[in-house]
Each structure stands twice: as structure tokens, then as C-alpha cells.
Amino acid sequence: MGLNRFSSLAGTLMIYAMVLSQSWWSCHGCLDEERSALLRIHSSFNYSSGTFLQPWGKVADCCSWEGVDYNFTTGRVVELYLPGKREEGLGDLYLNVSLFRPFQELQHLDLRGNFIVGCVENEGFERLSGLDSLVFLDLGENKFDNSVLSSLGGLSSLKSLDIAYNQLKGSFNVTELDALINLERVNLAGNEIDKFVLSEDTRGFGNVSFISLSNSTSNGRALPFTLLESLMKFPYFRTLSLAKNNLEGSFGTTLDKGNLWY
Length: 262
What we know:
The longest helix is centred in the first third of the chain and has 26 residues, at 2-27. By secondary structure, the protein is an alpha/beta fold. It folds into 2 domains: 28-166, Ribonuclease Inhibitor (Leucine-rich repeat, LRR (right-handed beta-alpha superhelix)), CATH 3.80.10.10; 168-257, no CATH class. Strand 6 (136-138), helix 3 (148-152) and strand 7 (160-162) form a beta-alpha-beta unit. It has helices at 2-27, 32-45, 148-152, 225-231; strands at residues 68-70, 77-81, 93-95, 108-110, 116-119, 136-138, 160-162, 169-173, 185-187, 192-197, 210-212, 239-241. Residues 15-28 have low confidence and may be disordered. InterPro entries: DNA_repair-toleration, LRR_dom_sf, LRR_N_plant-typ. Keywords: Leucine-rich repeat, Repeat, Signal. Pfam families: LRRNT_2.
């Protein structure tokens, strides 16, 4: 009887030790493929004597690298925070999005303010369509134009998309984002969008409840009523931010939609 109890206790302690060992490994290491991918990102954003994320690669422990968060159980990258990391003196960047493909559990990608003007040909955001965990993408304060929309169209898992303060102009073609059926929040502040274009069977933006169009009337531009009218086509749209806009006249009837807040 005593021997059986001892064996049971020993087995429990062994399992506990294995769990601790796994947790220790996850916190103090990273997968080779993801570590290599991080170093390639570092090279593409930087130059040999640059200061972009300078500590990356100096220690083997990727978990300690700036802007990198891990799942301690799987050892995989789940969040990359890289806002404003690229030096202005390097000029504009054409992004090779394939560099982010190895991060199979990536949930949050922040590339805000890195002087990105577009993507390398055939290496746009469509290359991330297999990242089913990606729910947050921040591309704000870059130089993307309307051509980025088709590239984003395959990111069906996204819930929050920020492309504020870029160079989006004129008609915003929602049909190019038809697969974004889980999207809930969209930040389009600081652009010059005139209207949203969608067809009756468009699914993209179907679940969007919040849209920001703040600061969209710079350089004396008036906020187009066609833009406000086109917002009413989104079925679950409830909250609109119009902060820092020069609004004149009455537009209440234009935004007549139940519980809409603005």
C-alpha cells in the first residue's frame, strides 16, 4: 500500500517537474524559425549601423526582445509591437509582408509610423491569410494608398483594423474587403475618403460597429455628405467618431440610424 502511494506521488512530482520545465523553456527561448524571422525583420527595417531595435539578436532569449510577446505555453510569438521603430533618415519602405508568415499564432501586429508606402510586389498582406489568430492590425501613420485594400482582403480573422493617417482618398471600396466578416472596429481618421462603395451582397464591414473618421477635413476640405450617407449601409454600425472635423450645418437626418452615437 505504501509503495503504491509512493509511486503515485513520484509520478505526480514527475509530471509537475515536466510542466515547470516546459514553462521555463517557453519563457527563456523561442522557436528557431521565429527567431530567424525576427532577425530578417530587423534587417529589412534597418541598416547595419542603425538603431532600430538594436538589442535584437544580442541575446538568444527572444522573449526579452523589445516589442515581442510570447505564448508561454507554446513558445510562439503572439504580439509584435513595432510602432515608430524605423528611422526617418532611411526613407520610404516597401514592406515584405511574407517576413511575418512564420508567426503562426500572431494575434496583434503593430506597424504604426514606419514610413511604409506599400508592399513588395506579390508580398502584400494577402500573404498573412493563413494566420487565423490575427485579430488586430495597426498600419496607422504610414503612407498607404487605396491599393492596400485589396491586399488586406484575405485577413478574415481581423477584428480591429487601423489605417488612420495614411493616404486613402476618394472612394473606399468595401467590396475589396469582403472576407473581413469578423471586423468590428475600423480607424480611418486623417484620410480623405469621400464615400464607401459596396454592393447589396457585400459582406465586408458587415459586423463593424465602430468607425473613426476623425480629423478628415484638414487643408480646408469639407466632410462630404456622400461619405456620411454611405455609412448607413452597414447593418451593425453604431458608433462614429467625427472628432477634430470642421462640421457646418445639420447632418442629423443624414445619420438617422437608430442607436447611432457620434
